[in-house]
Amino acid sequence: MACGVVIFAVAIPVAQSVHDSFVVRAPKVIDFTPLSFIKVFDLGLHEAVAAIRWVSLRSDMPLVPDGYEKLDYEIRLINSLDPRFSQPYYFSTIVLPEIQKHPYRVQAAVEVGKRGVRLSEPDWRVPFYLGAVNHVYLRDRGEAAKYFDLAAQTTGIPESIRRFSLGYGIAPKSRGEMKEIWLAIEAGANDKDTKKRAEMHIRHLEIIELLQDAVSTYREETGSFPSAVEDLVKEGFIAEVPKSPFGLNFFIYEGGLIGIKPLSSG
Amino acid sequence: MIEISRLTKIYAGRRVVDGLSFSVQKGRVFGFLGQNGAGKTTVIKVVVGISLSDEGCVRIEGLPAGDVAIKEKIGFMPEAPYFYARLTGLEFLRFCGDLFRNRRSKDTASHEELLKEVGIYEARDKRISTYSKGMKQRLGFAQALVNDPDYVFLDEPLDGLDPIGRREIKEIIKRLKTRGKTIFFNSHILYDTEELCDDVGIIHEGKLLYSGPVKEFCAGRPLEAAFINTIEAVSRT
Amino acid sequence: MNSIWVIAKNTFKEAIRDRILYGILGFAVFYLLTDLFFARLALGDVSMVKSFGLAGIYVCGVVVTVFLGASVLYKEIESRTLYFVISKPVTRAEIVLGKFFGLFAAIALTISAMAAIYLGVVGYEAREFDMLGLLAILFELFEMGFFVALLLFFSSFASPLTATIYSSILLFSGHLLELVLENAAQIGGITLRLVSGAYYILPNLEKFNIRGLAAHHTMISWPVGISVFVYAVAYSTLLLYFAIICFKRREL
User: Which one, A223, B58, B204, C159, has the greatest CB density within 10 A?
Assistant: First the structure.
């Protein structure tokens, strides 16, 4: 009997240690005092508390009842209670810049968005909306491209939005700049994934350039635009249609512009 | 046979039961008599294995009280019993019967038989919370008999019953005696227990004053008078 | 063994006929149905629906456990229903274990009923079978098993109110230990050593909480699952063992 007591008594700390060395803990947002109070008294029900606070904050948000400091604070509190909870990140990212009473609204939005990209459960909206804020309010194409690309990599992103994200900056007037941006990212990246991703984007842009040039030559020689990229191969302007690194199909708009579309939709 | 030797029980430094020794022969009806607070219930609790003695020992058929093997052969009815109020009478009896190894005590037909014997068969499927005090007393009696025990211990079996109820319970005790059961009951009511007992034990303030045949104790007087004389004799000294 | 089963069955029967249970269960059903309303506010974010629902099941589970568990031994000692049982060929250990399994079965049934409603609500909202949510509820059930053992342990020597207060303190502290350890790690020294001791010895209940993971589609690994199970079983067994020892010594 005593032996059994010892075995069970030893099993408790051992199980605790095994648990601790394998468990994946929620990512951390800097704690501040009232948060600790909530964590003390909610019996570990942080997610539910976060969800309820979020619903009430969301309905108040456009009104900013108690000033913007309260707003930033509440968002951070909710993020801290449930760091994986994606809706507060993406919703705040697109709504904050429109709150005119908030003096640093765009910065606040970017801050929340970045936190979301770091901590949230995978949700394409988090990076996508951050990309949109960068594009619309900050006109920072580099940052926008980076976050649109992140969104495109998130599982569960609708195909049409993935196509939009990957097509960001492929229009003729921005294509050159976009390529420069990705080259800079590639050169500055110190991790393999980012480098590879940048290379894929550069390749993608190069293919579009190549096809666009072929279309121009086709126009010069035949007097009309080809109706499909396959025509370029048939008439011998290019040897074959290069494979998109993102698994997309290329097509030609009526005015001769190269577009991209998902593989599945033919 | 039930043998009690030098049984002592101490509560908070007070010897509630003090060096009690007596025995009860098989097949006899033993009335354990004393005033309220004399220590009757404490003794019966030790004998049926609910509490442990501080000194001395209790043996039934040579086995120590509280032994699982002897518990198979005893039945006990507590004083003013409370029940699991949300069960029905029959469910409660089945629960009690299932706690024994004995096959017969698990048999629903014999449970119904028992409920008929104590006179609450009609109420067998009603919840115990709806029972009257007398019905609860009868159910308490029934559960004490569920394993067809050789030894039956009853704590104040006649307390709180109406005259008809008392007569019925006494009839059952007599019937059990004819079946050869040993019956040990506590009582502080004496005027109608004389006819039941073969032997009596008299306890006063934790000490045994008498143990033996009821006829010798009474010596021609009514039991109640003999009891009062004995107690008063002790109190005077 | 037979006696444990019989007592467990009886305890279960008594518990599920308790009106309080239906009161709490009715409240739980109402709460879980408000989850449907909450889903409208969540704007299609199923994780909120899940967090809300799982939290409700947990809170109601704790309330049911306290109501059923705190008074279970005490009530029987006070009302002397135990006299019936103890005078039968039953050991006190069998009584404690029978009470434990009976109560645990009643609580498991209550939680299963809530789980069924929860799965229905999530199924309706998200068109998915919430496997992870079910796992989180299973972990909640482990915690309730532990909690029943804790309540039985305290009620083997204390009154229901005291048992409830002690158990509640350990319940709150059990969900706090990780936080306290983190803070102590920043202080270091003797504080850290004391807190680490408490961390390993006191019941550490936050490990039973995988609701957040479940709501955000994150699976736990096998070692975590197994260590949580071992922890629950080892701790409950130890508590029951001590409950039996205390109960054996207790004067009835």
Answer: B58
- Which among C175, C201, C213 is the nearest to A43, CB-wise? C175
Q: Taking CB atoms and an 8 Å cutoff, what residues of chain C touch B49?
A: 86-87
How many structural domains is chain C composed of? Answer: 1
The Cα C11–Cα C14 span in angstroms is: 5
DSSP state of B175: H
**Gyration radius of chain A's alpha carbons:** 25
Do A85 and A79 contact (CB within 8 A), yes or no?
yes
Using CA atoms, how far apart are residues B1 and B22, in angstroms rounded to an integer? 11
Predicted local distance difference test score (pLDDT) of residue C20:
84
pLDDT in tens, C174-195: 888 888 888 888 888 888 999 9
Average pLDDT (A258-264) is 73
> Do A and C touch (≥3 CB pairs < 8 Å)?
yes
Residue A180 lies in a domain: no
Q: How far is B232 from chain C (nearest CA, A)?
A: 32
ipTM: 0.86
In angstroms, the Cα distances linking C79 to A100, B48, B79, B225 are 69, 18, 11, 35
CATH code at position A66: 1.25.40.10
Query: Euclidean distance between the first and final Cα of chain B, in Å?
Result: 34
Return the residue matching tokens 């010069």.
A220
> Does residue A109 belong to any structural domain of this protein?
yes
Q: Taking all residues of chain A, what is their mean pLDDT, rounded to a whole number?
A: 84
For the residues A119-128, what does the mean pLDDT come to? 92
Of all helices (H) and strands (E), which one includes residue A248?
strand A248-252
| Residues spanned by the domain of C176 | 2-249
Residue A117 maps to a domain: yes
SS3 B153: strand
Give the domain range for residue A38.
30-168
Percentage of chain A exceeding pLDDT 90: 13
Evaluated on CA atoms B67, B68, B73, B76, the torsion sign reads positive
**Low pLDDT (below 50) residues in chain B:** none
With bands split at pLDDT 50, 70 and 90, how would you rate the model's confidence at A265?
A: very low
DSSP-based three-state secondary structure for C207: helix
- Output the CA torsion C127→C129→C132→C137 (10° steps): 110
User: What pairing do the DSSP bridges indicate for beta strands B14-24 and B29-34?
Assistant: unpaired
Residues of B with CB under 8 A from a CB of C: 11, 45, 48-51, 68-69, 71-72, 74-76, 78, 81-84, 86-87, 91, 95-96, 98-101, 143, 147, 153
A19 vs C47, C207, C218: nearest CB:
C207
Residue A36 contacts C where some CB pair is shorter than 8 Å = yes
- What is the spatial distance between Cα B152 and Cα B186, in angstroms, rounded to a whole number? 11
With beta carbons under 8 A apart, name residues in chain A contacting C227: 15-16, 18-19, 22
% of chain A with per-residue pLDDT over 70: 92
More confident residue, A262 or C128: C128
Mark yes or no for CB contact C87/B82 under 8 Å.
no
Q: How many domains does chain A have?
A: 1
Whether the pLDDT of residue A29 is over 70: the answer is no
Q: Which two tokens stand for residue A257?
A: 């512009």
For A182-235, write each residue's pLDDT tens digit: 888 888 888 888 888 888 889 988 888 888 888 888 888 888 888 888 888 887
CB contact under 8 A, A44 and C206: yes
Sequence-distant (6+) residues with CB within 8 A of C125 are C36, C39, C46, C49
Question: Where would I find the beta strands (DSSP E) of chain B?
Answer: 2-11, 14-24, 29-34, 55-60, 63-64, 74-77, 151-155, 182-187, 199-204, 207-213
